């Protein structure tokens, strides 16, 4: 017990110095972390990488949720959601994000749609608690393949939803692979309104994430492949976005890097995944990591120094 307490204290001290014990979860493979700050805690929603050690393909049958009050000690909660909780979905617990509105928690997820709309699609689940249980909030996908492309063979572009709610309560949904899309959401959070729009960013791959500091919006995203993370800035949530450069390099031993960015107790964090668990970790058996994020005086972002560097 004493040794465990000492480890926990030294972990908190290291984190205050900006060095984390990465990866933060080692008993499971976890990917695509989406962090939510709610009250005095941070929640990390992650996909569960379940590919056997000899299979180099995504195998993800459920999402996981962890919470922490200090960014160092993480508690795992019961599995809050699976793709099979959406009757119209076939599987694939790909990247997702939870946002709170009026005491309800909305979880936008990527799944594999059933054969009525082949390819990936975006669904939304809802709960009264950040740890669930969550249930399908609309009984059908909010975004399907046929809404975003005239080419029926592009089945990969409706993935990686990220959401943002402005101070006046307008919600926006962003998503995409190769092409970045966005649309406004209605007040009910489960229908979109207006036309689907696009944003062109250099070498956009996937994994958009919006955050705001002061007057500036930041749109970070996976760049090229293997993925680095790059970002753009704007004074308006609707753009235009100005590309600003690389935020994080390729993360050890993983082709993907999938970040989220939050402020918690006056510090900024960059939360992502790598493939660093020894022996079998890699692009299909990933692990969530945390590092600190810092700003330059001109509001641009300093490149993240991964604890592994
Ligand atoms: O986890 C499956 C996919 O890998 C995600 O949707 C992408 O962002 C990439 O991380």
Automatic annotation (TrEMBL):
Organism superkingdom: Bacteria
GO biological process terms held by the UniProt record: xylan catabolic process
Residues carrying the site annotation Important for catalytic activity, responsible for pKa modulation of the active site Glu and correct orientation of both the proton donor and substrate: 160
Keyword Iron-sulfur: no
Signal peptide: 1-15
GO molecular function terms listed in the Swiss-Prot or TrEMBL record: hydrolase activity, hydrolyzing O-glycosyl compounds
InterPro entries: Glyco_hydro_43, Glyco_hydro_beta-prop_sf, Glycosyl_Hydrlase_43_Enz
Keyword vocabulary terms for this entry: Carbohydrate metabolism, Glycosidase, Hydrolase, Polysaccharide degradation, Signal, Xylan degradation
Family statement: Belongs to the glycosyl hydrolase 43 family.
Protein's recorded name: Glycosyl hydrolase family protein
Organism: Zunongwangia profunda (strain DSM 18752 / CCTCC AB 206139 / SM-A87)
Organism lineage: Bacteria, Pseudomonadati, Bacteroidota, Flavobacteriia, Flavobacteriales
């Amino acid at each position: 017990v004493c040794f465990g307490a000492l480890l926990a204290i030294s972990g908190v001290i290291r984190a205050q110095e900006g060095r984390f014990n990465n990866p933060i979860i080692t008993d499971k493979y976890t990917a695509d972390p989406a962090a939510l700050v709610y009250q005095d805690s941070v929640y990390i929603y992650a996909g569960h990488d379940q590919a056997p050690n000899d299979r180099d393909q995504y195998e993800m049958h459920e999402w996981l949720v962890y919470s922490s009050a200090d960014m160092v000690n993480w508690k795992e909660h019961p599995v809050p959601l699976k793709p099979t909780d959406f009757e119209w979905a076939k599987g694939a617990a790909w990247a997702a994000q939870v946002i709170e509105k009026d005491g309800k928690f909305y979880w936008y997820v990527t799944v594999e749609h059933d054969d009525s709309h082949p390819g990936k699609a975006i669904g939304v689940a809802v709960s009264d608690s950040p740890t669930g249980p969550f249930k399908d909030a609309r009984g059908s996908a909010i975004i399907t393949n046929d809404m975003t492309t005239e080419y029926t063979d592009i089945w990969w572009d409706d993935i990686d939803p990220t959401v943002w709610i402005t101070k006046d309560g307008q919600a926006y949904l962003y998503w995409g692979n190769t092409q970045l899309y966005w649309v406004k959401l209605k007040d009910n959070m489960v229908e979109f309104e207006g036309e689907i729009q696009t944003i062109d960013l250099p070498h956009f791959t996937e994994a958009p994430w919006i955050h705001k500091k002061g007057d500036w919006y930041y749109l970070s995203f996976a760049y090229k492949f293997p993925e680095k993370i790059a970002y753009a800035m704007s004074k308006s949530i609707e753009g235009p976005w100005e590309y600003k450069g690389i935020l994080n390099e390729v993360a050890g031993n993983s082709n993907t890097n999938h970040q989220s960015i939050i402020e918690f107790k006056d510090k900024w964090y960059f939360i992502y995944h790598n493939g660093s668990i020894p022996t079998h970790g890699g692009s299909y058996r990933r692990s969530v990591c945390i590092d600190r994020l810092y700003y330059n005086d001109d509001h641009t972002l300093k490149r993240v120094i991964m604890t592994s560097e």
